[in-house]
Design brief:
Elements: H1 9-19, H2 25-35, H3 50-55, E1 63-67, H4 73-80, E2 84-89, H5 92-101, E3 108-111, E4 125-131, H6 142-151, E5 153-164, H7 183-187, E6 195-202, E7 207-213
Helix pairs in contact: 1-2
The structure holds S-adenosylmethionine.
Residues 24, 27, 43, 49, 68, 70, 88-91, 94, 113-115, 131-133, 136-137 line the site of S-adenosylmethionine.
Amino acid sequence: MTTTTPDPADRVLARASLARNDPTGWFDQLYTAAERGEAEVPWTRGKPNADLAAWVRPGAGRRALVVGSALGDDSELLSAHGWTVTGFDVAPTAVAAARARFPESTVDYVVADLLNPPGEWHHAFDLVVEIMNIQAMPRDFRPAALTSLASFLAPGGTAIVSEVAEENMDMANWQSPPWPFSRPEVESVAQDGVRLVSLQTIRAGARYWATFTR
Ligand SMILES: C[S@@+](CC[C@H](N)C(=O)[O-])C[C@H]1O[C@@H](n2cnc3c(N)ncnc32)[C@H](O)[C@@H]1O
């Protein structure tokens, strides 16, 4: 007799959401299912992203924006290094959970959608951190998401972009989400006055780590 392992909740929810042409609805469903103990959020580590922790510089009060802030670990890392941080996520349950995890935090955790961001964020941030969020939406949404991302960066600021690198993945057998990035797609953050500063692969070629400025 053959047995099949059921798909994890994140895959089941993502599939249903994407079939409704809703690229982001499944994130909040997954976070709420996890709070009920019925699912695991696969990207939850309980600590900041190690590459961001290795990169982090003193903020000296400058403004940072963390895209897809999830449960808040990367936002808190930047805050601890002196940045004035806004962390945003499309999932209200994640934003509430981040606030509850860090009740003394000075981070401004807000619910917002990268595909339709608040107008006052235009050119407003000295540091913009995008780690593995845009790759979690289908490719059709990528150009709009990258344009939004570039728009947040203030003159003289730094944007960090880290995504799974398509060039080193077995794409023939890949199950999305996420949808890995090509090098030119990462480079395309350089638009509307934004310039590429560096682009490298990290984690044995598995991810890109790129920095930009305006
Ligand atoms: C794969 S997780 C990555 C989380 C975190 N950046 C990390 O590196 O662990 C993607 C996160 O982005 C959020 N997200 C997805 N699409 C978004 C959008 N359009 N606007 C804002 N947040 C979004 C999800 O709710 C989720 O918390």
